[in-house]
Write a structure and sequence with these properties.
The chain is mostly helical. It has 17 helices and no strands.
Length: about 425
C-alpha cells in the first residue's frame, strides 16, 4: 500500500491552499519539524487496529478469486462473467476512493473506517448466500463500496496519529497485513469450500471473520488527537488536481499502478482456469494454495524499500518491472514447476514495483497528500477491475497465450514508464 509521510503538513488550517501566499510561508517549517506525539499505548493500539483493518479489507475483497471456476459452473456463466465477482468490488472501490477520502478529510476518518469494515463484513455474508449471480455481484459491489473508505483514511490516520519515529515501522506492518489478508482470504475460501463442497461455506467463513474484526476494531481504535478538517471548496480542489497532474512524475506513477495491478489481477484470475484443466486437474484447495505466493510479495516489498536507499527509485523500478515481465513469460511453459516459478517471480516483481511506486508518489506528493494517495489507489484498483475483466476476453478468444499477450503488453508499458521516469532530476 501507499506509504505517505505527513511530517511537513501536520497542522494545516481547514481552508489551506496548495500554493502559499509567499515563498517564505512554504519554507518556514524546518525539515526536521516534530511529528505529532502519541502515547506509546495509543501507538500500539493504532498499529494493531489499522493492521486488522488492512487484513480484513483484503481478506474480504478477493475471497471469490480462487472460486471462479466453481462460480462459473454453479451459475452456468463464462469465466469472464464469473470474474465480475472480483472486479465489481475493486471497481466500485476505485470509483469511490477519491470522494470518500475527501469526506474523511472533512468530517473524520475513524467513523468512516468503523462503519466501512462493519458494512463490508455484512455484505460478504450476504454474498455467501446469494441465490443468483446478479445478487452475488450486487453484494460484492456493495462490499467494495464499504471498503473504499478504509485504505486512504487508514494511511492518513497513521500519518497524523503515529509519531514520526515509529511511522515507517507501522507502515511496514500495515502493508504486510494487507498482503497477509489477501493471501489468507484466497486460501481460506478455497480450503473451506473444498471441505464443505460448496462455495457458500467459503465466503461465509470470510464474512464471519470480517465481522469479528469489525467488532474488535470498533473497540480498539483510540480517538484521533491530531485530526483537523480540510476544506472541500471546489476551487481549491481543482487547483490541487491541476497541480498534481502537471507534475512530471505523478501521472506516470498513477499509470504504473493501473497497468501493474491490471496484470496482477489478470494473471491470478485466469491461471486457475488453466490449472483446473488437464493435465493439471487442480481442485479448489490446490488452486487456493497458489496464493501462498503472496508471502513472496510481503518479503519483496520490504526488500525493495531497502534497495531504493542503495540504488535509487528509478533503477529498482525498472529492474522489478523487467523481472515481472520475465515471470509472466515463464507461465507459458507446460511444466507445472515452471508455471509456479514464473508466478512467484512475477509476484516478487509486482509487489516491489508497487512498493517503489507508492513510496515515490509520497515523495512527490506535496501538501495534498491525502488526495494524491487517493488518486494513486483509485488508479491501482481501477486497473485491477478493468484490465482484470478485459483479460477474460483474451482467455475466451486466445486461451492462455491470449492472456499472456495482454499481460505482457501491460508489463511492457510499465517498463517504458520506468525508463521515462529515470529522467526525473533528483529522484
Amino acid at each position: 500500500m501507499l506509504a505517505l509521510d505527513n511530517t511537513n503538513c501536520q497542522r494545516r488550517r481547514p481552508g489551506f491552499q496548495s500554493h502559499p501566499v509567499s515563498p517564505p510561508a512554504r519554507t518556514a517549517l524546518p525539515t526536521s519539524a516534530p511529528s505529532p506525539a502519541a502515547p506509546n499505548d495509543d501507538t500500539q493500539r493504532i498499529t494493531l487496529a489499522l493492521c486488522l483493518a488492512g487484513f480484513s479489507c483484503f481478506l474480504l475483497l478477493y475471497g471469490t478469486q480462487p472460486l471462479l471456476p466453481q462460480l462459473s459452473e454453479a451459475f452456468a456463466i463464462s469465466p469472464g462473467t464469473a470474474s465480475l465477482s472480483v472486479t465489481v468490488g475493486t471497481g466500485t472501490m476505485a470509483l469511490l476512493l477519491i470522494p470518500l477520502s475527501l469526506v474523511a478529510d472533512r468530517w473524520g476518518r475513524e467513523r468512516l473506517m468503523r462503519f466501512g469494515l462493519l458494512g463490508a463484513a455484512l455484505c460478504a455474508l450476504a454474498s455467501a448466500w446469494a441465490p443468483d449471480f446478479s445478487l452475488l455481484v450486487l453484494a460484492r459491489g456493495l462490499l467494495g463500496a464499504c471498503i473504499a473508505g478504509v485504505p486512504a483514511a487508514a494511511m492518513a490516520h497513521l500519518g497524523e496519529e503515529v509519531p514520526g519515529t515509529a511511522r515507517a515501522r507501522v507502515m511496514g506492518l500495515y502493508i504486510a497485513a494487507n498482503a497477509l489478508g489477501g493471501m489468507a482470504g484466497r486460501l481460506l475460501s478455497a480450503v473451506v469450500s473444498d471441505l464443505f463442497g460448496s462455495w457458500h461455506a467459503g465466503l461465509g467463513a470470510l464474512g464471519a471473520i470480517g465481522l469479528l474484526v469489525a467488532i474488535v476494531f470498533w473497540r480498539l481504535l483510540p480517538p484521533a488527537r491530531h485530526f483537523e478538517p480540510r476544506s472541500l471548496q471546489p476551487g481549491l480542489l481543482m487547483a490541487d488536481i491541476r497541480r498534481i497532474y502537471a507534475d512530471p512524475g505523478l501521472p506516470w506513477l498513477f499509470t504504473t499502478a493501473f497497468l501493474s495491478m491490471g496484470a496482477f489481477v489478470g494473471l491470478y484470475n485466469y491461471l486457475p482456469f488453466r490449472l483446473v484443466q488437464p493435465p493439471y486437474g487442480f481442485g479448489p484447495a490446490a488452486i487456493g494454495s497458489i496464493f501462498l505466493l503472496y508471502a513472496v510479495g510481503s518479503y519483496s516489498s520490504a526488500w525493495a524499500g531497502r534497495q531504493v536507499a542503495r540504488h535509487g527509485r528509478p533503477r529498482i523500478l525498472l529492474g522489478m518491472a523487467l523481472l515481472a515481465a520475465l515471470g509472466i513469460g515463464a507461465t507459458l511453459a507446460d511444466a507445472l514447476w515452471l508455471i509456479i516459478a514464473g508466478l512467484g517471480i512475477f509476484t516478487f516483481g509486482f509487489f516491489a514495483v508497487h512498493s517503489v511506486a507508492s513510496a515515490w508518489v509520497g515523495h512527490r506528493a506535496g501538501p495534498r497528500r491525502g488526495l494524491v494517495s487517493a488518486l494513486y489507489l483509485a488508479s491501482y484498483y481501477l486497473g485491477g477491475s478493468l484490465l482484470g475483466t478485459a483479460a477474460g476476453w483474451a482467455w475466451s478468444h486466445g486461451g492462455w497465450p491470449g492472456v499472456l499477450a495482454a499481460l505482457l503488453a501491460c508489463a511492457g508499458l510499465v517498463i517504458g514508464i520506468a525508463l521515462r521516469l529515470r529522467r526525473l532530476a533528483g529522484d
